[in-house]
Specification:
The protein is α+β, with helices and mostly antiparallel strands. It is globular and about 65 Å long. Strands 1, 2, 3, 4 and 6 form a five-stranded antiparallel β-sheet that branches. A four-stranded mixed β-sheet has the order 5-10-9-7, with helices on one face. 36% of the residues are buried.
Length: 460
């Protein structure tokens, strides 16, 4: 089959090419921003602020267009900054970065085939029929279906783009320098620590042996739970830049086929999704930190009485959290569950993020955590229109993800609010993603019973 004319022959992964492109973009944006600032010197404070915001938005759009052209790790870095950078970056920057599209143009098979052949070796390569048209293309890799000739086993090959792993460190440095030229990022220790975290996350994303091991781990956790499907890893076709797993059919979580299901079927899918979130925090200590809907599919039951199953994909963003952070999350969840303000404030003690806050700010955060756990509580504090006639929590009507986000933004606006530990941001983002999932699917469930087994009012 001939290559698709809309596919690329190669990525710009050469350090000089990328450095030149990013340096040019940063210089142009910085020059425009400086010129705009000079032009508003004699304007009123309000006019200067409005002009600054408008200029920042325009330059952010320009920078994002330039980043999108380079693809590779640059796109993923931009997406991570958009997802977790609200504490560091101006709103205009994060809004623009959210537009970076991970569904990139694919690399042609004629460019990838020699790479796959070399990785597998001629013998292993000859055992497979590989579809040259990709199932999907992202910023760091693309996915191709394959079939093992000997027995017809359906497989998926996740093929890392050549050179992206080696470009991560230089790309991150270049993106940061570009943003700093526009005065868009703070010169603080917290920001530097966050950059180190982004660097580590990026290297984790391209560490396929680790992802294979994590996939096997979750397979072992869930193999006896018929609500979930985790792909099987085929190690004989895996390398440092090639991941081979079973092909698993399913439809997207937000597809019309799922959204038009009967309410009770959607409720069971929602309960399963929340249940696995609870087990990650309270049982396993291994948390999928990427809330992207693309990491999940639903395999719909073929006949009445069968179970709709959630297919879990892409374990590259799974993190194991230190015991002290997990215990903090558990204690704060317990305190919020029982609406115990004293226990919440006690749980915060000993963590500099909380200790550096005035008591009034800690009290406000306690109210935020009480709000966040609303669907799992006894529902006395829930809005009346968020409850169904039989007392279930209606996530779409409750709009909890929007109320929590608004409350959090107001809390973060105080001058006493410091940058939270990166692990806290991961966990909060995880659950905001889960809450959005519940809202999109229109869940109406009793969530208290999912969390209650993990909690005791007075733990030992």
């Amino acid at each position: 089959m001939s290559d698709n004319p809309y596919q690329m022959k190669r990525l710009k992964t050469g350090a000089f090419e990328r450095r030149l492109s990013l340096a040019k973009a940063g210089f142009v944006a910085g020059t425009r921003f400086a010129a705009g600032a000079a032009g508003s010197m004699f304007a009123s404070p309000d006019e200067r602020d409005e002009k600054r915001r408008r200029m920042m938005a325009e330059q952010a759009q320009y920078l994002v267009r330039e980043l999108g052209k380079l693809k590779g790790s640059v796109v993923k870095i931009g997406q991570m900054m958009a997802l977790y950078g609200e504490h560091f970056l101006p709103e205009e920057i994060t809004r623009a970065l959210h537009q970076l599209n991970d569904d990139t143009t694919s690399l042609s098979w004629s460019s990838l085939e020699p790479v796959v052949r070399e990785q597998l070796g001629e013998k292993r390569f000859a055992e497979l029929d590989i579809d040259p048209e990709p199932l999907g293309a992202a910023s760091l890799a693309q996915v191709h279906r394959a079939r093992r000739k000997s027995d017809g086993t359906e497989l998926v090959l996740k093929i890392q783009y050549p050179g992206v792993a080696q470009a991560i460190d230089s790309d991150l440095n270049l993106v940061t320098q570009m943003l700093r030229l526009t005065k868009a990022v703070p010169q603080t220790r917290e920001f530097d620590e966050w950059l180190d975290e982004v660097r580590m996350m990026m290297h984790r994303e391209v560490n396929y042996p680790q992802e294979a091991e994590t996939t096997r781990l979750f397979y072992s956790y869930l193999r006896s739970d018929d609500r979930f499907i985790v792909p099987r890893i085929y190690p004989e076709y895996c390398t440092d830049t090639l991941l081979c797993m079973s092909f698993e059919r399913g439809v997207p979580i937000n597809s019309h086929l799922v959204l038009q299901l009967a309410q009770e079927r959607r409720n069971r899918i929602a309960e399963a999704a929340l249940d696995i979130c609870c087990r990650e925090v309270f049982e396993w200590g291994e948390i999928q930190t990427d809330p992207n809907f693309g990491n999940y599919l639903v395999r719909l039951a073929e006949k009445e009485g069968d179970t709709d199953r959630i297919v879990l994909l892409d374990f590259g963003a799974v993190r194991d959290f230190p015991d002290d952070l997990l215990e903090l999350a558990r204690k704060m969840t317990r305190a919020a569950f029982f609406r115990d303000r004293e226990a919440m404030l006690k749980a915060m003690q000993g963590f500099s993020f909380f200790d550096n806050m005035p008591e009034s700010v800690r009290s406000s955060l306690t109210d935020l955590f009480f709000l966040a756990i609303e669907p799992f509580s006894d529902l006395k504090e829930a809005p009346a229109d968020a409850l169904t006639a039989d007392g279930r929590y209606d996530w779409a009507k409750g709009k909890l993800h929007m109320r929590v986000a608004g409350f959090a933004a107001r809390s973060a606006a105080t001058r006493h609010f410091s940058v939270p530990p990166k692990e806290v941001m991961f966990i909060s983002r995880k659950f905001m993603g889960a809450y959005t999932f519940m809202t999109v699917i229109g869940a109406q469930i009793y969530a208290r019973s999912l969390l209650e087994p993990y909690l005791k009012r007075n733990p030992a």
